[in-house]
């Protein structure tokens, strides 16, 4: 090879190195974005689970309150019947 060929080859190597670095940086950015999206998805699922749990707790509380009201009404009815007797 001539000196000119070596220089050109060296320039090609340098360009290849830059491309390689840029590709690595781009790949790292993509991985970071994917990780961020996965975390956001996981957080979203956690929020949904929390909302579901809260809804279930509210429903249970409402059911318990309804049962207590019914029991209270039944107790009052029994007391009224006892008084009437």
Helix/strand layout:
Layout: H1 3-84
Distance between the termini: 121 Å
Query: Structural class, from helix and strand content?
Result: mainly alpha
Mean pLDDT: 82
Count of alpha and pi helical runs: 1
- Large-scale geometry: rod-shaped
**Relative helix content:** over 70%
Low-confidence stretches: none
Structural domains: how many: 1
- Report the sheet-strand fraction: under 5%
The main sheet comes to:
none
- Write down the secondary-structure element order: H
Radius of gyration: 36 Å
| Strands, count | 0
Structure description:
Residues 32-85 have a biased composition (Acidic residues). There is one protein chain. The protein is mainly α and 85 residues long. It has one domain (16-84). It is built from 1 helix and no strands. The chain has one helix at residues 3-84. The protein is rod-shaped and about 110 Å long.
Defining key terms:
single chain; mainly alpha; 1 helix; 96% helix
